[in-house]
């Protein structure tokens, strides 16, 4: 997510450790837990079941922001389940469990469902929720991540958004595949994740169908409805590349296209560093209003027009597409582990700059290290445990990227590449923790790296120059002119943080 991107919307982090390997907490007969065990966001996600697929049938009217929906959730109970929760903010009209009416009650975003009979552990279960509402008017605990625009809406946000358009198990630990069908008035376009499988029109309404076949976290599922120019071509790896640009971009349409249409090139570069691209499609969407951030929605990153005010910006495209590996395929096990997502996405910008000849990663490290004096509050945020209110702090991005360049200096380029490739390969479509990453880095390097990571990720203060910290003497010398990439990266990050 482009947080720096002052553009990302949202906000939160998470704290539980690797103890919780799945969103469901095993147990005997009884209700599932109303949370997934995330210390930063204890109410997010639920226990007692695992979701494998969401089928979302929606009807959306841009004129009044009215959304009707029927969500069919295919799940497997992980205990003998007498009741369970779904994360949902709109108004449910009915709930069926395995075809039978179920009792339900709602408190904020907690929809508690009591089926007519206990659901056996390991059985196939289906939950069908019919609902409606005006998402832009629904606020829970001061939050409303839904983005209404003059011509439609954007269901885009982090870490919360899904509860404002479909019921689900809203935590990265419980990933699923999706079919998303959105019916809108003729002349309105809809873009979502994956591949556009069908479009059909009837009585003044058009239904757009999208499918993603790889496990997807709830906050990475999205749709955008409005007036868009949609382009489809063959992208990297022979996959469909689908891009969408708001009809209202005006003079920013050119620089936006000059940036996002380079996505296949960016993915080819990133796959050379990180290994095989983990998904079935690619592309992006650029809005013209409502957003001041970018988000790595799976297969289809979404960008604010603001990133392109000063011209083309490939840094944000690199950042959001690096998240397809770090964040989307391998997600945070709890939001406390956000450094793995944002540190690698920001470091990918540095590697891209290095490959483009606009500044090496070390030159960028030196610039950011010298830019922040010892007493700068920047050094008081610990990327490995930033706290709920600082999940998207500058330090998570910049100090996070610096950690990886420092690690590169300590273990060498080949070993760091091996660490990154092994991480995304072994944890594909699952989650990971900072502690697991440290363990892998020690295994691959043959070095004890506890002190190194403790200094960079878990200690307040500026890491000192030295071989043990990976900070070279060059870092304390302020260059007369910063690397060329700095202006674009800073612009991108400023936006992300503006949000």
Automatic annotation (TrEMBL):
Residue intervals of the Aminopeptidase N-like N-terminal domain: 52-220
Enzyme class: hydrolase
Membrane spanning residue stretches: none
Protein name (record): Aminopeptidase N
InterPro entries from the UniProt entry: Aminopeptidase_N-like_N (IPR045357), Aminopeptidase_N-like_N_sf (IPR042097), Peptidase_M1 (IPR001930), Peptidase_M1_aminopeptidases (IPR050344), Peptidase_M1_dom (IPR014782), Peptidase_M4/M1_CTD_sf (IPR027268)
Keywords assigned: Hydrolase, Metal-binding, Metalloprotease, Protease, Signal, Zinc
Catalytic activities: Release of an N-terminal amino acid, Xaa-|-Yaa- from a peptide, amide or arylamide. Xaa is preferably Ala, but may be most amino acids including Pro (slow action). When a terminal hydrophobic residue is followed by a prolyl residue, the two may be released as an intact Xaa-Pro dipeptide
Family classification: Belongs to the peptidase M1 family.
Taxon lineage: Bacteria, Bacillati, Actinomycetota, Actinomycetes, Pseudonocardiales
Cleavable signal peptide: 1-26
One Pfam family named in its UniProt record: Peptidase_M1
Residues annotated as domain Peptidase M1 membrane alanine aminopeptidase: 312-456
Key word Flavoprotein present: no
Cofactor list: Zn(2+)
EC numbers on record: 3.4.11.2
């Amino acid at each position: 997510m482009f947080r720096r991107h002052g553009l990302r919307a949202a906000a939160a982090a998470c704290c539980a450790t690797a103890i919780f390997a799945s969103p469901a907490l095993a147990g005997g007969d009884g209700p599932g837990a109303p949370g997934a065990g995330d210390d930063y966001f204890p109410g997010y996600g639920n226990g007692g079941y695992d979701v494998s697929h969401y089928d979302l049938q929606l009807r959306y009217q841009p004129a009044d922001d009215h959304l009707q929906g029927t969500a069919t959730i295919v799940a497997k109970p992980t205990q003998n389940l007498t009741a369970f929760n779904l994360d949902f903010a709109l108004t449910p009209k009915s709930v069926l469990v395995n075809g039978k009416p179920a009792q339900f009650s709602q408190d904020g975003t907690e929809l508690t469902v009591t089926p007519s009979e206990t659901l056996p552990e390991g059985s196939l279960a289906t939950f069908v929720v019919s609902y409606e509402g005006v998402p832009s008017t629904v606020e829970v605990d001061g939050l409303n991540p839904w983005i209404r625009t003059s011509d439609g809406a954007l269901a885009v946000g982090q870490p919360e958004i899904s509860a404002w358009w479909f019921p689900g198990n809203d935590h990265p630990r419980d990933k699923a595949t999706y079919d998303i069908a959105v019916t809108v008035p003729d002349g309105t376009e809809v873009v979502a994740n994956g591949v556009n499988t069908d479009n059909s029109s009837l009585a003044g309404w058009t239904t757009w169908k999208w499918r993603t076949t790889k496990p997807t976290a709830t906050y990475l599922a999205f749709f955008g409805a409005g007036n868009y120019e949609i382009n489809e071509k063959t992208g990297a790896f022979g996959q469909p590349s689908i891009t969408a640009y708001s009809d209202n971009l005006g003079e920013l349409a050119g620089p936006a296209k000059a940036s996002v249409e380079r996505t296949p090139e960016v993915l080819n570069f990133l796959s050379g560093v990180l290994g095989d691209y983990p998904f079935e499609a690619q592309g992006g969407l650029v809005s013209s209003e409502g957003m001041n951030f970018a988000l790595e929605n799976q297969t289809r990153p979404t960008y604010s027009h603001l990133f392109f005010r000063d011209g083309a910006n490939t840094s944000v495209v690199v950042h959001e597409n690096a998240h397809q590996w770090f964040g989307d395929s391998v997600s945070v096990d709890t939001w406390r582990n956000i450094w793995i997502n944002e540190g690698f996405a920001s470091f990918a910008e540095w590697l891209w700059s290095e490959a483009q000849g606009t500044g090496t990663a070390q030159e960028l490290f030196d610039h950011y290290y010298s830019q922040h004096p010892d007493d700068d509050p920047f050094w008081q945020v610990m990327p490995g445990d930033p706290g709920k209110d600082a999940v998207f702090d500058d330090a998570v991005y910049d100090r996070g990227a610096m950690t990886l360049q420092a690690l590169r200096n300590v273990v060498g380029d080949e070993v760091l590449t091996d660490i990154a490739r092994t991480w995304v390969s072994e944890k594909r479509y699952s989650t990971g923790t900072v502690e697991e990453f440290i363990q892998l880095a020690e295994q691959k390097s043959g070095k004890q790296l506890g002190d190194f990571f403790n200094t960079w990720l878990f200690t307040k203060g500026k890491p000192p120059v030295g071989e043990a910290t990976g900070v070279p003497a060059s870092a304390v010398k302020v260059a007369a002119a910063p690397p060329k990439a700095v202006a674009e990266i800073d612009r991108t990050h400023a936006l992300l943080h503006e949000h």
